[in-house]
């Protein structure tokens, strides 16, 4: 069966996270978005894990479902942990990893072990002062059915390849445990095409997840499979990079990620890798070292040119969340009543958000949405956007170049649309890569 999965999210027990991040709200928003399988997130936190055991029960495929509910949404036990340690002559190694566990019994054993070496109640993403390779061994010794994935692998802080605290290769980071790393999460600031530039990642499966801290943000990146929706088969697909069963990832435009380019947010400075090299990675305003972004770091490690495509690569499709498209078309902020009401109407009549954004023919979308929104979706599908890249923790800014004099629909006209959209059987296909942004913050 074909299904969409978002494995990496957080609970209400993580810092700077919505109090609505619980499994009931996740199931609700997964239905709205069109996601079939969610990671639980944060299973290491004692209070959250206690809630999971009360609210979820395991199904016949090794996944979890809500008790006393007919919801078709399934959950897979996941958690993110942080390791801060010294290795290779550097004292500031900071690596985040995602742990997949086959069942709650295994989670109990993992948590029992982790609480002897760190404070797992301190945060939904606990911190441990040990090399990350030791964490891989600890988890797999408990159960070889567990799966370990380096999280947001390119961000400057807290990642495998991060410019400030990471390594130059999986082998350098995980040493003898590198044989157990089969998959990495690309993160919001990179996409698969950027990772294809590194030949040493050719056999590594690339996944994309939302890393959501609020329910509305789930699915901003996700994974599309065509296989049995079971724990064992999903892990096998990820472990073997089975491109016949792993159909695609859904991506942020990486320029929108908050670490795509280099810069200093306090100085309002953003630089491309080429500009940073001219300045020797020094901020032209404050003369301190720049925060080096993902594109620069990929350039430093890549052994292939821009645009290189690997054989048997798992394709991807870049998208902008529907709420952001509507807000841009209406020239309002997300969260306003006009944006929220139109979003709810389009999603309810179009089956779900992913179906509208990825599968639904434009002429059918025009039956449930203003022409301006239809044009916005068309431009996003074709990668025709204007983007100011993110930098130093500041999200990039995307704008959709719509001729608003041509598309003059009023939101009120939507209330006249009553006929629901029929289900579509269209398959998701890879999109063309978006053109590189030409916009730049000048100094």
Strand content: 15-25%
How many beta-strand segments?
18
Low-confidence stretches: 411-443
The helix count comes to 14
How does the helix and strand content classify structurally?
alpha/beta
If classified by CATH, what would the architecture of the largest domain be? Alpha-Beta Barrel
The CATH class of the largest domain: Alpha Beta
How are strands sequenced across the largest beta sheet? 5-2-1-12-13-16
Report the C-alpha radius of gyration, rounded.
22 Å
The best one-word shape is globular
Describe the structure.
With 443 residues, the protein is of the alpha/beta class. The protein folds into two domains: 254 residues, Metal-dependent hydrolases (TIM Barrel); 96 residues. It is built from 14 helices and 18 strands. A hairpin with a 5-residue loop joins strand 3 and strand 4. Helix 10 packs across helix 11. It starts with a strand and ends in a 44-residue tail after the last strand.
What are the defining features of this structure?
443 residues, 14 helices, 6-stranded mixed β-sheet, single chain, 18 strands, 4-stranded mixed β-sheet, disordered C terminus, alpha/beta, TIM Barrel
SSE order and pairing:
Blueprint: E1 2-6, H1 23-33, E2 37-39, H2 46-55, E3 56-58, E4 64-66, E5 74-76, E6 78-87, E7 90-100, H3 104-114, E8 127-128, H4 132-142, E9 147-150, H5 170-174, E10 183-185, H6 192-195, E11 205-207, E12 222-226, H7 231-240, E13 246-251, E14 262-264, E15 269-271, H8 273-278, H9 294-301, E16 316-318, H10 322-330, H11 337-349, H12 353-359, H13 362-365, H14 371-381, E17 386-388, E18 397-399
Parallel strand pairs: 1-2, 2-5, 6-8, 10-11, 13-16
Antiparallel strand pairs: 1-12, 3-4, 6-7, 7-9, 12-13, 14-15, 17-18
